[in-house]
Each structure stands twice: as structure tokens, then as C-alpha cells.
What we know:
The radius of gyration is 23 Å and the shape is globular. It is α/β, with parallel strands linked by helices. It has 12 helices and 7 strands.
Amino acid sequence: TRETGEPPVLGDSGVRPGAMTELAERIRSGDARALARAATLVENRNPRADALLTELFPHTGSATIVGVTGTPGAGKSTLVDQMTAAWRRDGKTVGVIAVDPTSPYTGGALLGDRIRMQRHHADPGVFIRSMATRGAMGGLARATTDMAVLFDAAGLDVVLVETVGVGQDEVEVARLADVTVVVLTPGLGDDVQAIKAGIMEIADIFAINKADLPGAAKLEREIRNHLSMSKRDDCWTPPVQLTVAHEGGGIGELLAAVAAYAQGRARKAQSGVLWRGRLREMLRDRLLERMPAAELDRAAEEVAERRRDPYTVVEEMLGRIFEKESGAS
């Protein structure tokens, strides 16, 4: 320690007892450096992150989580940048989680969304974190939900989650966000027919961005016609907002629609998303830990050569694992 010059006493996990409690307190006090350190722990799936999130979770529930998703090239990052600027003018603090795709070939990610948000880099009321999907599907990274918990506990008023460009069925953001904004643009070919199978159903608000381009009015009519033939359980009809993000056009109306949907509505059960997601991860990781690497490699080779089928192989592996577990108990 600084006082004695002796090294800190560490627990069994290699972490000084109380370190995560101290880090949690710094995060709740608005310490941006502590939040950045915690975000790295969470994104890297560091075992210490669980202890930190345990400390922070009781202090969440105040932030409005807004998901922004849509087709590639729709201008989501520019729209998020303008939304952030508008909320800051209203005195709200904003956290941005920008999810970028990971290359399946190099394993790298550009993480370029923050380039469009450079004007906020010196604003203490804005915290931006780019994340790579690292192979996760659904438009989000594995740690996105935990990152939103961090931002919420840090006292940020709004947490914006920008997904990668998504297709029809990549709708995980709707399970995380309180309000989901689906961003579309004119010139989608078959327009609503091309995308309605999944992503159309998750929208609480539609934003037709680049509305200064030809076809915006046609796309708006098609969305409204689609909405007229469907009915939501909460009786909410998603509004359709026209925006021109690079000029700031329509941003005020879009934020008003977000506020209108969020006002008076109970928060979605992110707790269910959290525990189910964590359960899946823990089960997968612990099962893989119990399978010898050589056995996995041998099974993969046998399946690739069509000497065995994957269904039987998986059943046999699980059977052996559970047999060992029951014998040990």
C-alpha cells in the first residue's frame, strides 16, 4: 500500500478484497476513468466483472435504454450522434454503446462508429464505448447487456445502444432496450416486404432517415399500411418519423416520440434478459471445460468425414458429462 510500501493483500481470486466495491463506488460517483476500466473488464469477460456487476445491479433502473437498429447504411451512427447532441442540449447525460461487427477472417473490428461522434469526446456528460460482436449474433455483442448495466449504475440518464447493421431476424436489441428505434432508408428495393419478417415487429418507433431522398413518402406509406394490419399487445402504434440526420432534421420530433413511448410505461424486464443470457453462457462455458480438447477435435473430424452424425455425438458427450456429475454427487 502507499502508506506502508507493502503489497496489497489479495484474496483467492488474486483481487484485493473490497477492490470491486471501491470500483463500484467510483462508478456510481461519476468517475469516468473507473467506468472505462469497468467497461474493459466486462467486455473481456474478466471473472472480476461478475463481482462488480453484483455490486452495481441494485443501483440500476433509472436510465432509459434506447436501442437504435436497422439496415446497413441507414445512417444509424449519424442519427445517434444527433440524438446525443439534442439530449445534451436538454441537460441529459448520455452513454453510447456502439456495436461493430467482428471480421470472421481476421478477428478484428473497425470500431469506427465513434469517428462520427468526435464532437462529444471532450464532453464529460457523454460516455462512448465501441464494442466488437466477437462472433455474437443478433446485432449485439455478448457483453452489451452488462455494459448497459454499468452505464445505468453510473447515473447516465440515457443509454443509447447502436447495433450493427442487421437483417430480418437479428432482434436482440428489443429484449434489452426500453425503446427500440428501427432506422430505414428509401430505396430498399421491395421496401417493407424485404424486411418485415423480423425487424419490423420490434420497432417502437420508425425513423425514415435520409428522408430528403426520392422514395421517402412511398416508404412511409408502406410502413403505415403494414402497421394498420397489425396490432400490438400494448395497443401502441409505432409512429413514423422522417429524419435527415446529417442536417439534424427531424431529431427533435424523434426524441419527442421516444419520450412519449417511455413515459408512463413500465421498464421492460431486462433482468430476464440478464439471467437467461448469463445462464446460457455459463452452461456453455462449463460444458466445454469438461470436454477434453482432443475429444472435441476427434469428434469434429469424424463429423466432417461423415463417419458420425453431430446429433449422436452431442448426445453422447452430454450423457457422459451428466453421468460423471451424478456419480460425483
